[in-house]
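Case study.
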Amino acid sequence: MASRTFRIWRGDQDGDGQFAEYVTDITEGMVVLDAVHQIQAESAGDLAVRWNCKAGKCGSCSAEVNGNPRLMCMTRMSDLPEDRPVTIEPMRTFPLLKDLVTDVSWNFEVKKRIRKFKPRAPDAEDGTWRMDQRDVDRVQEFRKCIECFLCQDVCHVLRDSHKHDEFVGPRFFVHAAALEMHPLDTEDRLEELKEAQGVGYCNITKCCTKVCPEHITITDNAIIPLKERVVDRFYDPVRNLFRIIGGS
Amino acid sequence: MQVAEHDVLVIGAGGAGLRAAIEASAAGASVGLVTKSLLGKAHTVMAEGGIAAALANVDGRDDWRTHFADTMRGGQYVNNPTMAELHAREAPDRVRELEAWGAVFDRTNDQKILQRNFGGHRYPRLAHVGDRTGLEMIRTLQDHGIHLGIDVHMEWTVTRLISDGGRVVGAFGYDREKGRFQVFRASAVVLATGGIGRAYRVTSNSWEYTGDGHALAYEAGAELIDMEYVQFHPTGMVWPPSVRGILVTEGVRGEGGVLRNSEGQRFMFDDIPDLYKGSTASDPEEGWRYTQGDKEARRPPELLTRDHVARCIVREIKEGRGSPHGGVFLDIAWIREKLKDSEAHIRRKLPSMYHQFKELAGIDITSEAMEVGPTTHYVMGGVKVDGETQMSRVPGLFAAGECAGGLHGANRLGGNSLSDLLVFGKRAGEHAARFAGANPRGAASGAENEQVEAATRDALAPLERQDGGGDGVGSYAIQSELQDLMQAKVGIVRSQAELESGLEDVLALKERSRNVSVAGNRAYNPGWHTALDLPNLLLVSEAVARTAALRKESRGAHFREDHTAKDEHWGRTTLVVRKGADGEMETVEEAVTPPREELQQIIEENR
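After joint prediction, the assembly is written out as follows.
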C-alpha cells in the first residue's frame, strides 16, 4: 500500500479558493473518485463532490484531474504519474458552487430551447414505426451521451470566449444532431442552429471529441454535418439564386 | 421560509418519478419534481439489460398472460396479482410510447423493436439499446418532460412529509447548494425514491439509495411490505476492490455468457429448481441454441432467476471453487468457438460492459473471462399501495417504482424494473393528479407549521452538535458500520442467530446515531447530507432485519440456512411493517391476496 498526495481545490461561491493538500493510502485498482471519498471520510467531511453511479454511466463526477477534464470514477490512480501530487479541480467553465462542484444549471436551461422530437405519423396501424438498424446506428452514437458536460468544459467558445448566450456548446449540438438525424423526426431546427444556437462559432478544433468519455465523435459526426446542413440551406449560391428569382 | 406550491409533488426523478410527473402534468396538474441529484443521473441510468414487455416482436408466442405468469413464478407467488396483471398488460404500450417520444431501440430484421432473452422470461422479451437501456429510457423521459412545464427542483432532498387532517399536504426539504430549507406544499405526493442499497457494503447502488421514500412513508403512517426480500444480483464486479459491487448486466448471460468455477465447470447445471426443470436446457449445446433464438431450445441454467443464481455462486465460493478474488468466472469470450466475428459481436451487444471492464479492471471481455459475485441490487419490499392507483393507506400519498412494494413478490425478474417504473409511474401520476383535483389542500395550518419547525430542528441538529464537544460520532463512520453489519448478518444467506444479532446491532447504531455530529457549514456538505440520510437507512435496515428474522422459510431472495424449504403458512403470508402507537416499529402478518380465478388459471397453464 502506497500513500499519495492530492491537491484538491477548496473554495466556495464567495471567497477565493485554494488548493489543500491531503495524503491518503492507495490500494490496487483505485480510481480518483475512491481517493476523494476516502479523504472525505478520513479528514475532510465537508469536501463537496458530485457522484452517482461510479461506473462511467451517469456523468456526475466530472472534474479536471492533473489539468485534464475527466470523469473521476473512470480515472485509475495507476494511470497517473507517481512522482508528483494529483491535482483535482472543478470544471473551470462553470461557476463554482463549492470545492469540486460547479453550477451546471445553464446546460439544463439550454436544452429546453432546442425543439423537441416530433415524429412522423406512425407507419403501422397499431401506432408503431419501422426503422432499420442501419438507419439508427448514427443516432444511437449520439444518444450514448451521459451529459457529463466535459465537452462543454473544454470548448473554448465557452471556456475562453464565454459565448454562453449565443452558443449552446458541443453537448447540445450532439443533442440537436440526434434529433435532426432521427429517422422519424420531422422538426426543422436549422434556422435556430444557425442563429440562436451559434453552430458557426465552432471552429472544429475537436477538443470536445478528445475528452468525451463515451468516445462520441462529436465534431466529425455531429457538428460538421449540422454545419453542412446550415451551409446548404442558407449559403448555397445556387439555392440563393433560386431564392432571388422566386422572390422569397 | 421559502414555500413552493404544486398540485402534485413527485419525490425522485428516476424512471418512475419522471413518468409520474409527465402523466400528472399531462392531466393538467401543476407538478413539482424533487431530485437529490441533477436531472438524468438517477439510478435508472444504470439499468442495462432492457425493459420487459410482451411486444412479441421476436417470438410471436409471447403475450401478457405469459409475462404475468413468469412474473408470478419469479416472485414465488406472493406478488400482488393485480399489479402483476396490470404490469404485464400495460408494459407494451409504455414501451411504444417511449418510441413516440424519441427513444431509439435496437431493431429486428423486420425493423421493429428488438427483444432479448433474460432470466425467468420464457420468451425474448426485453426491449433494449445495447446494454445502456436505462440511459435511453431516462433521457427520453427527461427530454420529453422538460417541455411540459414541470418545475424541477434539482439537488433538493426531502427529509419529511407534512400531513394535516389525516392526509399529506406537502414535504420539507433542503438544497445541497446552500442548505436552504423549503416547504413544498402539494395536494398529492408521489414517492419515487428508489431503493435501499446503501445499507449494504457491496452494492450496485449509489449514495442516493438510502430508503428515503420507504422511511418518509413509514413516518407518515403508511405501511411497508415484503421488506425481507432484498435482491442480490448474481453478477457484480469483484476485482479490483474499489469497483466491487458494480453491476455486470444479465445481458451478458442473455447473449450466451456462461458461469464457470475454478475447475472450469458450468456449475449452474448442477442445481435446477423444480419450478424450472421443464424449461431449462439439458446440455450446454441446447442452452447456446436458446441464446441464439432457437425457439425449440430451452434456456441455459445461467438464465434462471437471480435469487437462485446468486445462491449457486455463493455455494461455489464457500466450497472452495471460487475465482482468485472471491467470485466465479463469467465468460462471454468463449463464443468465439461459435461465432466468426465474436469480438465485434460482443462489443456491439455489450458495449458498456466492454468499456467498464477494460477501463476499470484492465480486462478485455472479448478474450478473457470476468470475475463476478453477488451485489446488493434491489429491494422488492416497499410502500404498500393499492394495485390500481398506487395510493398508500395515507390519503394523498402515492408510491411507484422500487420504493413501492407488491409487484415483484419474493424476487424480481430482470427487465421487470424498467417496465414497473413506466407502468406504475404513469398510474401514480394519473391518480395523484386526480386526487389533487378532487381534494385540494387548504391553507397552511398550525399543525403544519409545527411539523416544519420540528423538521428544521432535526435537520440542523448534526451541525449544531459540532460545537457541543462531547461524544459526537461521524456520519460516515455510522454508515460504514451499518453497511458492514448488514452485509455480514442480514445478507444473502441468513440464520436466526445472525439476524437477531444484526437487529440488535442496528438498534444500537440507531442510538449512537442520535449523537452524530458533522463538521462544516450548510453549503454543499456531504457529511451533513450523509447524517440526514442516516435515519432512513437505519429505519429500512431495521425493517429488513425484523421481517427476515420472522420469516422462517426460504423463498425467493430470502434464503435461510436454518429453514431451507418453503413453508405453506409463510407462502400465504405477507409481512407488514408500520409504526406502532408507541412509536416503535411493529410487524404484522397479513394474508397474501390470491389471484382471481382467471389469473389463477393462467398461472396453472404456464406452470
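Observations recorded in class. The CA atoms of residues 354 and 463 of chain B lie 44 Å apart. Chain B has a mean pLDDT of 96. We will return to this complex in the next lecture.
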